[in-house]
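Q: I'm writing up a methods section and want to include an example of the input and output format. Could you take the sequence below and give the corresponding predicted structure tokens, formatted cleanly so I can copy it straight into the document?
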Amino acid sequence: MFLLIIQSAADFVIHVISSLSYFGVFLAMAIESACVPLPSEIIMPFAGYLVYQGQFELAPVAIVGACGNLAGSLLAYWVGARGGRPLVERYGRYVLLSQHDLNVADRWFSRYGRSTVFFTRLLPVVRTFISFPAGISRMRLSSFSAYTLLGALPWSLMLAYVGFKLGEHWDTLGGYFHKADIFILVIIAAGLIWYVRRHIRNLRRDRQDA
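A: Here is the clean output for your methods example:
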């Protein structure tokens, strides 16, 4: 099932970029950064492969990818800033979010917001969802935008360069991504187990404090 989802995402990415050129890269990366799990690990290497074929240039495609990342991140940030906290306070328990989690996020972004936004742009999975809690915590927009772009640019360039260097060996990416996806899936599963247990403890704590 997981591999089928990855394959569908890959087919979508290839279609969008092949049809819309640079704007397709921008659009796909914007979708990925707006809390939609469309892997940049597929988007940018395919764009890099098109650099190898002479359809794109490496530096522009990396910049376009980073700008798309910023655009999608700003949308997720805006949703979090405008209505995220009331929504989480009212419905958060249904998606394993507690008042304690909000308080922790506020303290974390207040103290480490810049470095958090920058470094999470270099991490699979986490980078897709970090903008929403940043918006909820009302991190300063100028800092959020700057560090998002600074983090997204090397990530986009690195992945595009991977696709470019593989070039004629593009088919070998399939095995690489398959192994990476399994590893990421294991990490996610372990993280979910830890998070659910932690969430149950926090809910009990919230009830006791109420």
